[in-house]
Amino acid sequence: MRWTQTFIPTMKENPADAEIPSHQLMLRAGLIRQLMAGAYTYLPLGLKSLKKVEAIIREEMNAAGGIEIFMPALQPIDLFERTGRKDAFGNVLMNFHVRRGDRTLHVALGPTHEEVVTDLVARHISSYRQLPLTLYQIQTKFRNEERPRFGVLRTSEFIMKDAYSFSTNLEQLDAVYQQMYHAYCRIFARCGLNYLPVEAESGPIGGDASHEFMVPADNGEDRIMYCKSSGYAANLERADTGRKPPQIETSKEAKPLEKVATPNATSIEQVSRMLKITPQQMIKTLIYLVDGKPVAVLLRGDHEANEAKIRRALKASQVALADGVTIEEVTGAPTGFAGPVGIRCPIIADHDVPVIANAVSGANEVDAHLTGVNVGRDYQVTTTHDLRNATPGDPCPKSGAPMEEVQGIEVGHVFKLGTKYTESLDANFLDQNETRHPIIMGCYGIGVTRVLAALAETSHDENGLSWPLSVAPYEVLLIPLNVDDAELMKVANSYYDELKDNGVDVLMDDRDQRPGFKFKDADLIGIPLRVVIGGKGLQEGKIEYKWRTDSAPQKTAVDTGVETILGLLDERRKVEASRVPG
RNA sequence: CGGGACGUAGCUCAGCUUGGCUAGAGCGUCUGGUUUGGGACCAGAAGGCCGCAGGUUCAAAUCCUGUCGUCCCGACCA
Fold first, then answer.
1. Does at least one atom of strand B sit less than 7 Å from the CB of A252?
2. Radius of gyration for the alpha carbons in chain A, expressed in angstroms and rounded
3. Model pLDDT for residues A297-310, shown as the tens digit of each residue
């Protein structure tokens, strides 16, 4: 492609609306333009990369046994009512009424396609002989995000690869899951991403049933606990704190229980400042409604509650923070003064709570806290649980070494679903014994547009983007330095033609601009290999090439330049391929 | 949904506090000329419902009210 024949609107300055590097650079390099919050146009450069990512995904999905289909974004709302996800999605599900003749249809724009694909399978699969089956598509998804942000990282309309596996038993499901997991590793490696598979919340099947693929990045929205020595990595929601139940006994240094006045101090921070103590000395008492009944959850003052863990510990189905009225009922005080001593509801404590000697907690009385709170004497717990988010320094559940927290961008998710959808949508099969069972599902998603953003976010320098060869919009950027020089253009054009004839994806900057201008744009859009044809070089029979990641260009003979470039590209492709797991 | 910031030329921004000439600059665009290896220079030109609506005032980009939009923090995110 010739630059003057396409549409690459680069920008010299950072748009005011963009804050993080990927958003700024994708705008400046002319990959995307915003239409409204959470909706972006992909310009030629962005679209080319997107298509290359899609091609890689297709190759790997096909190799892993996936069958491509294409389902409608437009879906009847009753499918979501049957699976209960109309309510589960709530406002995130875009849905509306349309008139059709004298009828009114209630439709949704698909946020994902479990319902549609399961309905399809329910209608056409009925025998174990037809299974296993894995269907996938690459398609636009719609989610009414409460807060779209960070450019293309979180949008209300985005491209996703979603795959769904259908199996007769858990062994089959495990096999597909492993295949998909492996395919995902290959996809992200081929895209040149530095990725980390992390354990995620696993839902009904439990165990090792869900992994998210994260790209470590400071601006990532997800928090991951990571252990360098064991390789253990888990979503913050999921990560084990590695703590064990402590011995529960009253401290030998127990001081007397005392009530202190703490007017208007309702937060851990305010109380610790007022009493000149650290949050670690405090007991945080959170009142939850667990399946409708109040329960006091005790945590160390500096820790965060984890509702999924609380739900599991209590074997409950619903857990939510209690309202002010309930809190007054069980504590006898407004929100902010709850404590375990004398509270009128069951207590459940985190492992780290009973070991706090002479703790400070709310007094269950307005404007008052207690000091010298000790387990056994002042409040009773018989056992403890892991009820909180892990924090940096917590021991790794595998190695015991301190874990660290890293931020990440979620680019993929593999998940063993089980029979949630097949049961509600009647997707059954008959086994060898003519017995009917619900089909066992798995689902596997990749945020295709997010892969692009993650690459931009993690692969750039102060001058612009830097693409891997595999997904770069173009592999080679050919720069003739003076388009008015007929001799020079003759060489440039023959390079352009020959490279194209050899299957190289080449962009020629044929704009009538000064060299410096072109070099700046070259760095900004980040094409991996830059080839410069200039008057000075031609005089000595040389052309110049430079990898985007190199600092200085190298020279090679004009006559053999094309072969040199082809060789360089081959070599680089091999290097990139060597990073892909086999 | 709670909190904060912003909205003036295609882009980045000044002007608003303390209302008052024809609303400015740099970059970009167009024309002519000089240039040509890291975002050139000179001369000229085009380009604005100052987000929108209402109000106060002799007079509003500027003050007030409302509204829409965008961004950031938080909540939310099968």
1. no
2. 30
3. 999 998 988 888 88
pLDDT in tens, A220-241: 999 999 999 999 999 998 898 8
Where does residue A575 rank: exposed (0-12), middle (13-18), buried (19+ CB within 10 A)?
Answer: exposed
This model of the complex carries an ipTM of 0.95
DSSP A452-510: HHHHHHHSEETTEE---TTT-S-SEEEEES-TT-HHHHHHHHHHHHHHHHTT--EEE--
What span, in angstroms and rounded, lies between the C-alpha atoms of A466 and A188? 16
Report if CB A415 to strand B is under 7 Å: yes
Judge whether residue A524 contacts strand B, using its CB and a 7 Å cut-off: yes
Closest nucleotide to the alpha carbon of A91, via C1': B76
- Residues A468, A472, A478, A481, CA torsion sign: negative
Which of the four CATH numbers 3.30.70.2580, 3.30.930.10, 3.40.50.300, 3.40.50.970 does domain A15-73+110-240+405-456 have? 3.30.930.10
* Amino acid code (one letter) for A582: G
Q: Which residues contact A68 (CB under 8 A, 6 or more apart)?
A: A58, A61, A62, A135, A136, A137, A138
